[in-house]
Design brief:
The chain has 329 residues and is an alpha/beta fold. It has two domains: 247 residues, Alpha-Beta Complex (Spore Coat Polysaccharide Biosynthesis Protein SpsA, Chain A); 70 residues. It contains eleven helices and nine strands. A nine-stranded mixed β-sheet has the order 7-5-6-4-1-2-3-8-9, with helices on both faces. Strand 1, helix 1 and strand 2 form a beta-alpha-beta unit. Helix 5 runs parallel beside helix 8, helix 6 packs across helix 7 and helix 9 packs antiparallel against helix 10. The radius of gyration is 24 Å and the shape is elongated.
Length: 329
Amino acid sequence: MNMSEDIRLSIVVPVYNGKDTIRELTAQISSTLAPSEYAEYYEIILVNDCGKADAWPTIRELAVEFPYVRGINLRKNFGQHNATMAGLSYARADIIIVMDEDLQHPPSAILPLAASIRAGNDVCYTRYQDRKHATWKRWGSSFNDFMAQWIIRKPRGLYLSSYKAVSKGVAEAILGYDGPYPYIDGLLLSTTNSIDAIDVYHQERLSGVSSYNLRRLVSLWLKMATGTSVYPLRLATFAGFAVAVVSLLLLLYVLAIRMLNPDIPHGWASVVCTILFIGGMQMVFLGVVGEYVGRIYLRLNKVPQFIVRDTTFPATRMGKRAASENDQR
C-alpha cells in the first residue's frame, strides 16, 4: 500500500504488554479504514512503554511491513498517560484517536470517533456497553467517576474512557503541560468544553490480563487528584476549619459540664481520643501537602515525562515536551 504524506488520521496506541496483540490490532484497524476516506491517509503510532514482554521487535517488524505503522521506543516504563503524551507529540493528523493495545477497544468505533471531531467537537469519548472489567475495577471506576465530578469538574454522565478522539488543536494545547505526571483527561477537561461521547461495545481481552492492579489505580487516582486540581488542598482547609469549630464547641461543653458538676473526675479517655483524632487529621493533611510539594520538586528538577530511545521514522515532534536520545545524537 502506498501511503500519502497527507496524513488525516493518527491512531496512538501505548503498548505495555501487547506483544501478542498489536499485530492483530494493526490488521483490524487497517481492515476498518480500508473502505473509508482515510484508506491511504492514516498512521498508527505504537509507543513501546517497556513492559515485561518486550514489544519493540514486533513493532519494528510491523513498521517494516506496513508504511502506516510508526514505532516509538521509550527508554523505560513511564506509564500509560506519559506514553500517550509521547504518541501525541509525534502525531501528524488533525484528528487523533487514542486507544488501548488489548483489543477491548473495537476498531470499528474509529470512524464514528473521527466523524465527531470532524463535526466540530474537540474531544469525543466512548461509553462502554457491557463492560468486561472485573467487579472490583468497576467499583473503583465508579468511585473515580464520582470523585472526578468534584475534583476536575467532570460533566455528570461523561465516562473518562481511555478510548477517545481529540483534535490536533487540543492535542497541541495539552502538550504544553511538561510536568512528569500528566493526567490526560484532566488536561482535556481544563482545555475545552466541546466534548462529545459515543457508545461502543466493550470487547473481551484478546490475551493476557490487565496490567492495572490496585497500586496502579491508586497512583492514577492521585495523578487526577493532585495533578490538575487544588481541590484536595481546599478540602483539607475546610476539614481543618470544621475540626477547629467542633473542637471549640466541645471545649465549651466540657467547661460548662465541669462548672456545673465540679465533682466529675478528670477523664483521660476523652483527652486521648481527641489527641489521636486531631493528630490523625494533621497527618492526612500533611500527606496531601506533601504530594503537592513532591510534584513541585520533581517539576522544578525537570524530570521528563518520557525519554525516547529511538523511532522507526525520522523524528519530528509537535513540541519539545521531553528528552529524546535521538535529539541528543
